[in-house]
Amino acid sequence: MPAAIEAIIVANNARSGPVEEISLEGELTKVRTELRTRQRETIMAIKPVPFEIEKTYPPRGPLQQYRLAQSAAFTCFRCGESKKSKLITLYGEDWSRRLCNGCYGRLLSIFVVKAG
Ligand SMILES: [Zn+2]
Question: What is the model's pLDDT at position 10?
């Protein structure tokens, strides 16, 4: 058992009551806030283009497809699946709205039908 957990248990046994629970909750909140701040900093650091783009394809309506220099892991905003691919499609030039190749094909056919 890690020393920190043992210390908490000892502290709780020594002074049982709501005081320790409140301080533990406070520590957790501090850690969560710090993690969120770090995540935000990381996201800001990688914007606006988080990947090295090797090839930019002609845009099709709101869809813009890119080929990356290295395959990247991303979550498709339409189907919600985690993908790892060199091909990535953005909806409305928004890097937070990434599409997998399958969804790109589906949206493209819808777009072509609408346009035709
Ligand atoms: Zn998808």
Answer: 67
- How many whole angstroms from 75 Cα to the centroid of ligand 1? 8
Exposure string for 1-23, b = 16+ CB within 10 A, e = fewer: eeeeeeeeeeeeeeeeeeebeee
* pTM of this prediction exceeds 0.90: no
Domain boundaries, the chain: 3-46, 53-115
- Ligand 1 center from residue 88 Cα (angstroms): 10
The residue behind tokens 């909140």 is: 29
pLDDT tens across 75-109, in order?
Answer: 999 999 999 999 999 999 898 999 999 999 999 88
Q: What are 71's two structure tokens? A: 């395959």
Q: How many residues does the chain have?
A: 116
Beta bridge partners of 19: none
What are the CA-CA distances from residue 31 to residues 27, 37, 96 (Å)?
A: 6, 10, 26
For residue 99, the CA-to-ligand 1 centroid distance in Å is 5
Taking CA atoms, 115 is separated from 19, 105, 109, 110, in Å, by 65, 15, 10, 9
